[in-house]
Amino acid sequence: MATFVDRVVLNLQAGNGGHGVASIHREKFKPLGGPDGGNGGRGGDITLRVDPQITTLLEYHHGPHRKAQSGRPGEGDERNGAQGEDLVLAVPDGTVVTTRDGEILADLVGAGAEYAAAKGGRGGLGNKALASRRRKAPGFALKGEPGESREVILELKTLADVALIGFPSAGKSSLVSVLSAARPKIADYPFTTLVPNLGVVTAGGERFTVADVPGLIPGASEGKGLGLQFLRHVERCHVLVHVIDCATLEPGRDPLTDLDVIEHELAEYVPDASLGGIPLADRVRMVVLNKADVPEARELAEMVKPDLEARGLEVHIVSAVAHTGLKELTFALAGAVSRARAEQIVIEPARAVVRPKAIDDSQFHIRRENTAEGPLFRVIGDRPTRWVRQTDFGNDEAVGYLAERLNRLGVEEELLKAGAVAGSTVLIGPEDDAVVFDWQPTISAGAELLGQRGTDIRLEDRHRPTRGEKREAFHGKMDAAAAARQELEKDRRAGVWTDPEDT
Prior knowledge:
- The protein has 503 residues and is an alpha/beta fold.
- It has 12 helices and 18 strands.
- Mg(2+) binds at residues 173, 193.
- Residues 356-441 form the OCT domain.
């Protein structure tokens, strides 16, 4: 069973931010000590990082769903919640991160290269952080922001200098085993090699890697025989070596025909230009006529060699079994790799351009949508969406605070300009998870009946009664109690006293 996986679909869920808490400080002789609710912790991020010890994506094939730790909620006494731990996923060198639509998000090459695949949500503010001179006693807190949820595709494209390509059972695995210390599986049936095998070769002062690409067949560029999965590993190779079986007994097969078929598949396959690749047909190519230990195969190889050289190709006749012609081939590959490395275009990293947002940028826009039920108005923007997600709609004061923030941002004014009236349907947030309002130009919270939102009239009373005032209030209560007892005694003597058990 093959344990090599070079393409997986990952479902990532970053950690949610912890909720803020609404709390009031309690201390002896201080019944109204003020707000002391702490903030929620930030949710953990998900990062992809290259680990040279990892050579396959098998782990993510069995576990495609990954979730980072969420932040802890805040607590009273101004205690902030702990932040969620970041999740780091190790990937092989040469991993390309793309979307479902084929957009390349990152090309991870080199040990330690990383990409932030999903961002954790912000923690919500507690009522201590929401307090201000105008809002001295907030009775609400903000909820944590949900973490980012994404689906990405990981594709492993082998990093090698030389790619051995050809029909199945052409002797590519045997050639890798004698050129390097690699020990791939070798057998006498087609498609023995199901995964690319890498080997390191040293020739003089040159050191390079050779990749044994699984066998290609006609139609490989269209996906036949897993051809697209195999051709993916040729994209990063500098030199392509055609390994041709000169001892095959299959009808319709000969060295020239095999070469033409594989060349056609290389021309049809288009590598990703954004990775710095060039068309496969334009790369350095060599031909190896293998299995020359068979007399008939050697005669055929010597016969077709002039024709191949006439096409401008460098040709080597070798035998992986008899170890003939390998030394010349090794030094020829080293020279070709050296020249290809020297001619390789170094892609300069793009200069980072910082474009600060304008100070008066509202960061949102209104889109009017006409439906069968009537027009609706969708508010699109990061800030309004985040504010809506952090609002506790079970708290009238929190809803009023949201209305104030949206009004200061200019949402209400833009809605009026777009034609919204009282009772219009307004949506804030992404299309698949939007919050729906029956819009009113002014939203009032029940807390305003007690004063301005975020205030408490009990905290405004700073008068401390004197000892005489306390004594006077005490005697007043005692006199009121005595008067009530006298009134009850008078009613009893007058005969209007009623026993509750007799009613």
